[in-house]
Amino acid sequence: MTPRAAQGLARGEVLAQEGVLAVTRRRAPVPGTPPGANARDEEDVFVAVFDDGSVAAFNGHVDLGTGIRTALTQIVAEELDVRLDAVTVVLGDTARTPDQGPTIASETIQIAAVPLRQAAAGARRALLAMAAARLGTEALAVAEGVVSDAAGRRLSYGELLCGARAILPLDGDAPLKPVGSYRLVGQPVPRADIPAKATGGLTFVHDMRVPRMLHGRVVRPPYAGLDSGAFVGRSLLSVDRNSVAHIPGLVEVVVLGDFVGVVAEREEEAARAARDLRVAWRAFSAPAGLDDVETALRRNPSTRRVLKETGDVDGALAGAAKRMPRTYSWPYQMHASIGPSCALADFAEGALRVWSGTQNPHMLRADLARLMDLPEARIEVTRMEAAGCYGRNCADDVSGDAALLSRAVGRPVRVQLTREQEHLWEPKGAAQLIDVDGGLDAAGNPVAYDFVSRYPSNDAPLLALLLTGAVEPSPAVLGMGDRTAIPPYDYPAMRIAVEDMPPIVRASWMRGVSALPSTFAHESYIDELAAEAGVDPVEYRLRLLKEERAAALVRAVAERAGWEPRTGPRRTGEGDILRGQGFAYALYVHSKFPGYGAAWAAWVAEVEVNRRTGEVVATRIVAGHDAGLMINPDGVRHQVHGNVIQATSRALKERVPFEDGIVAAREWGGYPILDFREVPAVEVMMMPRPEEPPLGAGESASVPGAAAIANALFDATGVRFRRAPFTPEVILAGLEPAAPPPPPRRRWFRGLGGVLGGLAVGAAAALGWAAALAPVQPPGAEAFPAAQLERGRLLAAAGNCAACHTAPDGVVNAGGRGVATPFGTIWSTNLTPDPETGIGTWSFAAFERAMRQGIGRDGRHLYPAFPYTAFAGMTEGDLLALYAHLMAQPPVRSVVPETRLAFPFNLRPLLAGWNLLFHRPGVIEPDPARTAAWNRGRYLVDAVGHCGACHTPRNALGAERRGAALAGGFAGGWEAPALDGSSRAPLAWSEADLFDYLRTGHSPRHGVAAGPMAPVVAGLGALPDADIRAMAHYLAALHPAAAGPAVAPAPDAAAWGAGEGARLFEGACAACHGGGAQDGPEVALAVSTALHSDHPDNLLRVILEGIPSVIPGHGAMPGFGDSLSDRQVEALAAHLRGRFAPGRPAWQDLGGRLRHLRATAR
Amino acid sequence: MTAARDIVLEVNGERHALRLDPSAPLLAVLRNDLRLNGPKYGCGLGECGACAVLLDGRAARACVMPLSRAEGRRITTLEGLGSIEAPHPVQAAFIAEQGAQCGYCLNGMIMATVALLGRNPSPSEAEIRAALAHHLCRCGTHLEILASVRRAVRERAT
C-alpha cells in the first residue's frame, strides 16, 4: 500500500487527517490581491509525519535536475531520525507546498531548506515529547523512526501518532542536530529519481497524459524572441482557417491577439496544422546590429547605479604608471534545454489545473490568474520534471499556451513547443558588456579598479500575457546586472557601477546570471595586471585576496593542478599546437544586491590551440570547490562536473547568432554545444568544511570558467581574448589581427532573357484546331480482361501517371498538380473516368490520339509537359492496356485549375507547329542487333518511362534537344542528372548500381532517390525485376563503362575547416551522415551525385525540403528549411561541396540559387 | 500526410495492430498510441538523439523515422530493455553511476549504449565517445554517462 506521505494529499487534506503530526506556518497574504480573489487556504505545511511512519516534506522549490530532491530528503531524514525511504519530498506544487519563490540563485539548500530543517527538528521534538509522556522518561534515543528508552521499551513514530492530529507551528526554535552526529547528511546518496528515468517511468511533464487529452501546437509571430515594442501583441492581420481544413482530427484554431494555436486529436495532426496554417502578420522593426554586442549594449538606454566607491579612483587612474583600460564582452547564450518545453492544462468548470515543468509554480500561478482572469485559488499548478534548464526557459510560456487552448476547447490540452520555438523564444542568457579601467604603479601594484557593466535582462514576462495583450510590451528594468559585480580583490580604490537597462531581446536569468560574465572580466583583468607586472598570476591574486577561506582554495587548487608559475605567457607547444594553462577564482555572490555568497570555486584550465585552424580544445580542468557542509557529496560533485562542462561549452562554442535582428539559431547546428568527443578530463577537488553551513552548488563552479580558459589561451598564444566565445574565427582573428578580408566572390548571373527572347519566333505555323472525337459511355472495369488490366496497372506504374496527375494530398490521378515550366504553371488533368471532369467519355481512339499526338478528346492541343512525345513510342497493345486500367478505376469528380500561360504560350493551336518541329511520332521498333534486354530497357526508358522528359535538356521552346538524349535536364525545380557519359557522378553508374537505385531507391555508391525521382522509384516497385534489370542494362550502355573511378575520392580533410559550415554539418547532419551508427541506408556524401553536380539545386532542395518517405520501407530525411537561415544553408552547402567533392569547383552564387528556390519551391 | 492504413508494429516483443498514416513519425506513435515514455521529443530533426529506439538492435532516431520504415521490424524502447525492478544491465549501469542530471537525454544515452555494445562488446574510450557524439546532453552529465558506459562494458565482460 502506498505510504500516506506519498498519496499526494493536498495541503488542506493533510491537516484534516487522522494520525498526523504536521508542522505549519501561517501564510502571508499576497500583497495587492483584491479581497476574495486570494481565498487560498492559510496554513503552509512543511513537514507531516503520519501514523504509518511515513514522512512528507514540502518545499516550494523544484528539482531542475540538480538533485535537490535527494538532498532535501537527507536533511529531513537526518533531523527526524528516520530512514531515507520513509521520506517523500513534495516540490513546487501550489496545492501542497509553501511559496518560496522561484528556484533561482542556488538558494534551495542555503535558503529554502532552512524552514524544512527546522520543521523536521520541531516534529522530532514533539514526537519525543509524546514518547516521554507515554514512557515516563526523558532519557530517550531515536533511531530510524523508533524511540527507545534505557529499559529497551520502544515506540515508533507511527505508534505515537495513532489517532492523533497534532498541528504545530513552525517556530524555528527546536534544537538542530550537531553536525558531528550526522548519519545521513554528508554521505553520498544515490539520486532517488534516476531509476524511474532510466526505465521509462512517469516523471516528466512531457509524459503526462490524462483521459480526453488533445494535442496543441502554437504558431508564434515572426518577431521571434522580441518581447518589447509596439508591435508585440498587435501584429496579427489574418488567419486563414481554410488552410488547415484538410487536416483530419483538427479540433480548433484559437486566435487571441497575436496568440495563435491549433488543437487536434493527434499530435502529428496538430504539428501539421501549425505548419500549414496560413497566418498573415504586419511587418515589424527588429533591433539592429545585435551581432555587435558592444555597440548594441552601449546604445541601449540605461541608468547608472554605483554599487561601491572607495578611495580616489580618478586620481589613482590619472597617476598610474601604466593605465590599462579594457573592455570585455559576453554574447547572448541559450539555456538550450534538450527537451523543448511542454505543459498540460485542463480547464473545466471555472477551474484550471496545469502540469508544468516550471521553476516557479507560484509565480506561474499568479501569471495564469492574470491571463485567465481567475482567482489564484481556482488554479492548481503541479510541477513535474522537465528537461534541465539553467534559469528561465519556455516552461512557463507553454503552460500559459496550454491554459488558453484548453479553455478554448473545453478539454485537457497538451502543448509541446517545437525545437525551433524553444530556440527562438526562450529568454536568452543576456549579452553583457564590461568596461574596466585600472592600472599599475611603478612597482607593479594595482592603483584602482573602475568597473561598469551592462546587462540587458529582466524576468521575461509570460509570453501569452504579451501576445494576448494582457500586459503592455514595455520592458521592465530589473537591475540584475549587479551579481558578483564587486571584485574579490582588495584594490586600493574602487568604483563599481552597473548601467541598469531593459532587455533588447527577450532575456532572463541563466546559470551564473551576470556573475559569470562579470567574473570573466574580474579574472581576466587581474591576469592582465599580473602579466603586465611580470608576476605569476596565482601569486598576484594571493597578494590581493584578503579572505583566508578564498586564499586557501586558490592555493589548494593550484597545487592540486600542478600549477606552473610564470611571469608572462609561455607559448609552449609544437607544430600547429600551442598549449596553455590558466587560472581563475570566484565567489558567486547572488540575489538582490549586496546579496550573499554561494560556494567558492576556482579553476585551472589547460587548453590546446591549433594556430592553423583556430580550434581550441580544453584538455584538462581542475575545479576546486568549497561548498561548506555538503549534504550529498555525490550531488555536489555532479553539479561541479555539470558546471565545468557547460561553462567550457559556453566559453568555447556558444553564441546566439542574429540575422535581421532575429535569433538565427533554431536547431543544434546553429547553436553547437560541447559533445562527448570534446569533454576534457575533469578533476574535482572538494574542500572539506563540514563545520561550515551548506552553500549552494548549482552554479558556483561555472562562474570562473570562461576567465580560466581565456587566461590559458593567453598563456598559449600571448594574445588576450576579451570577447567570448573563443571560436576558431575569433582565435584566428586574434592570432593574426591584420589578416586581409577574403576577396569578394565573383558573381555569376544566370538569366533566362535570351531563352525567352528566342521563343517569340517559334511556332509560326498555326494549323488551327484538331477535330473533337465523339464522347463514349465510360466502359467500366468489366469491359476488360483481367490480364489486360494487370498489364495496364504495371504500365501506369512504370509511366508513373500519378506523379503528375495527383495533387499534393489529393486523390490518385484526379489531377490538379501544378507543373512549373519556364512558360508558366501547367495544371495536370483528371485521369479518372469521371464523365464530366475526367476522361470517362474518352474512347480508346481519343486516348490513343492524346498519347501519340498530344491532342485532347475535344481537339485541343495538350502542352508537351505531358510527354506524348515519349508515349508515342508505345505499342498499341500497351496503350490499350493502359486505357483499360485507367477506365477501370473509380471515377472521381475533380475540377482542376485551368492552365493559363502568358501570351504567346496560351495559344494552344501553336503547338501544332511545335509538333511539326519537334515531335517524331512512331512506335519504338526493336533493334535486332541488340539483346532483348536492351530493347526492353529502351522501350521502358524512352517510351513508357519517358525518362527523357526530365533527363534530356530542352531547347528554348521546351522540346527535348536532339542528340542530347538523357544528357541531363531540369524538371519541377530539380536537376535531373545526366544519364549518359556526361554524368558528374563521382563513381560510374554500373548496371548493378542502376538496378539497385531503380529497384530500392538507393545505391550505396550514389545516394538515394529524392525530389520527383522518389515517386518514380516508388512507382517502379510494381514492375518485375526483369524489367528493372532491362532498364539498368539499357541505361548503363549509354555511357562508356570505364568512365569515372571505382571508389569514391577521399574527402579533403584540409577543406573541412572549422568554420560555420563545419559546425552546422556537425550539429545538423553528422548524426546520420557522419559515418554514425544510425539505422538506415548510410548515405555516403562523398559519392552523392548532387554534391558533384555543376548545379547546387538538388543539394539545396534536399536541405530545405528533406526527402519524404515515398519509397516503401525507405527512410526519410527531415527538411531544414524552417530550421536554418539562408546564410546557414549557404554556409552548409559550401562546406559540403568543399569537403565531399574536393575535386569540383566551388558553386557560384549559392545565395542567389537558394533565394530562388525558397521563392519558387514553396 | 498520406491516408491511414493498417499497420502492425512489433514493439518490445508485442504486436500492435494500428490504423495510421504510414508517414507519421514513429516517435509520435510510440509515445501517444502505445503510451511509452522512454523515447523523448528533442528536436524532430534527428540531431540530438533523445528519441532513440532500437530497430532490429540498431539505434535509430524515431523522430525522423516514418512509421512505414518500422513495419516488420523489431522495435525496442527503453521500456523494452528492463523495468525499474529488473533493469537491463545497461540501465543498471546508468543507475549505479548516476548517469543523469535532468535525465531527458538519458533514453538516448542508454539506447545508444545498448546498440554500441551489440556491435562492439569492448569499445575503446574513443569508440564510446564517437558512439555518443551525436547524443546531446545539456546538463554536462558527460562524465557520469561515460562512467556508466564503461561500467556497462566492464560488467558485460565479466
UniProtKB/TrEMBL annotation, chain A:
Swiss-Prot/TrEMBL keywords: Electron transport, Heme, Iron, Metal-binding, Respiratory chain, Transport
Key word Transport present: yes
PROSITE patterns xref list: CYTC
Family matches, as SMART domains: Ald_Xan_dh_C
Cofactor needs: heme c
Stored PANTHER family: ALDEHYDE DEHYDROGENASE, BLL3820 PROTEIN
Protein name, UniProt field: Aldehyde dehydrogenase
Species of origin: Muricoccus nepalensis
From TrEMBL, chain B:
CDD domains xref list: fer2
Family annotation (InterPro entries): 2Fe-2S-bd (IPR002888), 2Fe-2S-bd_dom_sf (IPR036884), 2Fe-2S_ferredoxin-like_sf (IPR036010), 2Fe-2S_ferredoxin-type (IPR001041), 2Fe2S_fd_BS (IPR006058), Beta-grasp_dom_sf (IPR012675), Diverse_Oxidoreductases (IPR051452)
Record GO terms (molecular function): 2 iron, 2 sulfur cluster binding; metal ion binding; oxidoreductase activity
PROSITE patterns associated with the record: 2FE2S_FER_1, 2FE2S_FER_2
UniProt keywords, alphabetically: 2Fe-2S, Iron, Iron-sulfur, Metal-binding, Oxidoreductase
SUPFAM superfamilies: 2Fe-2S ferredoxin-like, CO dehydrogenase ISP C-domain like
Pfam families reported in the protein's UniProt record: Fer2, Fer2_2
2Fe-2S ferredoxin-type domain sequence ranges: 5-81
Entry keyword annotation includes Lyase: no
Keyword Protein biosynthesis in record: no
Protein's recorded name: (2Fe-2S)-binding protein
Taxonomy of the source species: Bacteria, Pseudomonadati, Pseudomonadota, Alphaproteobacteria, Acetobacterales
